[in-house]
Amino acid sequence: MNSLEKLKRLTGEKTKAPEKPSSKQVQIDELRRRIDTVISRRPDRHQSASEKKFDADQINLSEIVPGEETENDHGRFFLASEVVRGSSRHGHRNIRETFGLDMKAAALLANEPSIAYLNSSDALFLDTETTGLAGGTGTMAFLIGLGWFEDGQFHIRQILARDFGEEKAALAYLGEIASQKKFLVTFNGKAFDVNLLTTRFILNRLRSDLSSLPHLDLLHPSRRILGHRLENSRLATLEAEVLGVEREDDIPGWEIPQRYFDWLRHRDGRLLASIFKHNRLDVISMASLTAHLTEILTAQELMQNVHAADYLAAARLLLKRRDACGVENILNMFDDRRRNEISIVSKKELSFLYKRNGRWREAAQIWQELVNAMPADYSTISELAKWLEHHARDYLQAKILVQKALNQGDTLSEKEKESLLHRLRRLNDKLKTAR
């Protein structure tokens, strides 16, 4: 029994005599139509009182969400459009503050050198809401949120497939917009959104260059630069802790798929209103987060709502990207006053960055401060002793430092003690030679 015959059983249709084989596309369209029929004919005996209310008091989507039905060569879909003015506030900043992205910094965040030669207006911010969180060929992106910079404003388009039959038209419109842009910005889009959309384009026999666009996935640099001080790296957490965005009555992500299936049954706009709001905020927050991360990387000035350790994490990322100039810019921010404000862990990180950039005296100054605060910390003692021995050539001070650590080093491991004893023997030999 093939899929069409099974669906006929579910819908209660009579099985007709075998027809001549039709094209595969016709079969796919027929399957979609029958799936919609199954959903619409599900028995209502388990309906809750609130569900019955939706059937009795239905509100059109266009009355709640500012949008309209749109048509192209592949069918119809619902399109919501909005222009966010530059003076509009989103958390700690105005929208206009996100416009002038430093494209070299954006390229470093994405590890995509080609982005450095583009403009911020070439970016397409993309976020999807889907019928499932696990992905796979059975998962559809029913709502696709897009955003881009144009004429000093932030433009938002939200593409809704009101049922499974509208997916092809919705995807075709997405492909049209994407063809006008030169790189993507997403949050976890490399692992989820782009792969899902690419699959849906293939299933609908549509061409798309979406997966070939240079791609800045904000999840990965956010983890590297901000994750050290956050409970997790979810976009909602970054909004609250970093961007200063407070969502009110936001719908949880796990609830969104079921809300869409409820919409298919009841067609009440209230079921989708909070999903549109959730998706809209995601798109705007991605623009704001991109600006925030690029500003940390460029380190032109100390920003509010940025921890000193964020800059150090950014310097580590720049070091990994082999941008020595960018690392130097960040290190130049840390004068004596700024160093005193950071934690012991951050001071250690700063000292190692100084060391890797050849700024030995500044590194040694921090190691001396740390030794005074933690006289039995092996890593700091070892680094300071190396500097005294190999750079300052002060063998006596190096010996005193190592001997003192050994005398009070109850917390040292046997391996650490052996390392310090080996250094002490070498220092004694050098002192004899010097005499």
As for the number of domains, it is 2
Number of discrete helical segments: 18
Mean pLDDT: 87
CATH class of the largest domain: Alpha Beta
Radius of gyration in whole Å, from Cα? 30 Å
**Could you state the CATH homologous superfamily of the largest domain?**
Ribonuclease H-like superfamily/Ribonuclease H
Helix content: 40-55%
Number of strands: 9
Report the structural category.
alpha+beta
In CATH, the architecture of the largest domain is 2-Layer Sandwich
Task: Please give a structural write-up.
With 435 residues, this protein is α+β, with helices and mostly antiparallel strands. The chain has two domains: 61-298, Ribonuclease H-like superfamily/Ribonuclease H (Nucleotidyltransferase, domain 5), CATH 3.30.420.10; 345-434, Serine Threonine Protein Phosphatase 5, Tetratricopeptide repeat, CATH 1.25.40.10. Helices cover 52% and strands 12% of the residues. It contains 18 helices and nine strands. A hairpin with a 2-residue loop joins strand 1 (67-72) and strand 2 (75-85). Helix 7 (219-226) crosses helix 11 (308-320), helix 11 (308-320) runs antiparallel to helix 12 and helix 15 packs across helix 16 (378-390). The longest helix is centred in the middle third of the chain and has 29 residues, at 270-298.
